[in-house]
Amino acid sequence: MGFLVNMFLNSVMENLLSIENLSKSYNGLQVVKNVSFSVCEGKITALIGENGAGKTTLFNLITGVEKQDEGKIFFEGKEIDKLSAVKRSRAGVERMFQSPRVFKNQNVIDNLLAGVHGHPGESIVNYLIKPKAIKIAEQENREKAIKILHTLQLQDYKNEMAGTLSYGQKKLLALGQLLMNNAKLILLDEPFSGLYPSMLYKIKELLINLTKEGKTFIIIEHKVEMLKKMSDHVLKMREGTIIEDKQIN
Question: In this predicted model, what pLDDT tens digit does every residue of 131-175 receive, in sequence order?
Fold first, then answer.
């Protein structure tokens, strides 16, 4: 028994995310049923299935928006079941929704700076006792934001109001907000929906390039064939269960 436990723990440590026997019910209806899978770092995992298959609920459970009835979630080898959604976000588990959530009345660079985790300026006291540390942090964050804008090809829009961006550019900006917080595992809900082909291709190539830098993605997307071609791992859900778990690369 001890050998099996150690073997399981070693397996968990090798994966960025490990899900073990996850289940969730609403009013007696089981929406996620005994789901288990693992995700490796620096890979793209496609999460596919028909509407109502349980994909969104699974995202909610991983990010801590909802609490599972049974099962465990491990991130970087540590159980995160008891962590709130905010604490999971700070640990590196982030989510981007289908409709990009940006601050329309703030400029693009301030959108990136607005939600940075762990800024010393979060504490009013620090403004009194650590003014130099706050100034240094602000400068470092601004430099990082500019670098991310170049990665997103949004550097020419840094002083524009986010509300003036195109739909696709807003999706890029929403992704940039997650990159500002050093997200390690990013869950994307239909990142390609509503995009013109040129922007779709740009975001697709961006995601592939980000995996080369160690970022990890789980993607829900109805453009299934395209998603499969860019993914390393495919999970298919039906009626709350994983019916296919296939490593491609």
Answer: 677 788 889 999 999 999 999 999 999 999 999 999 999 999 999
Q: Give the rounded distance of the alpha carbon of 230 from its chain centre.
A: 17
The class that CATH gives domain 16-101+183-249 is alpha beta
What is the DSSP annotation of 141-164? Answer: HHHHHHHHHHHHT-GGGTTSBGGG
Could you tell me which residue, 121 or 143, shows the higher pLDDT?
143
Closest CA to 218 of 60, 71, 84, 104: 60
Give this prediction's pTM: 0.88
Collapsing DSSP to helix, strand or coil, 116 comes out as: coil
| DSSP structure class, residue 107 | B
CA 9, CA 142: separation in Å to the nearest integer?
A: 39
Q: Where are the domains of the chain?
A: 16-101+183-249, 103-164
Hunting for tokens 């995009």 — which residue is that?
195
| Tokens read off for 234 | 């495919």
Q: Which amino acid, residue 182?
A: N
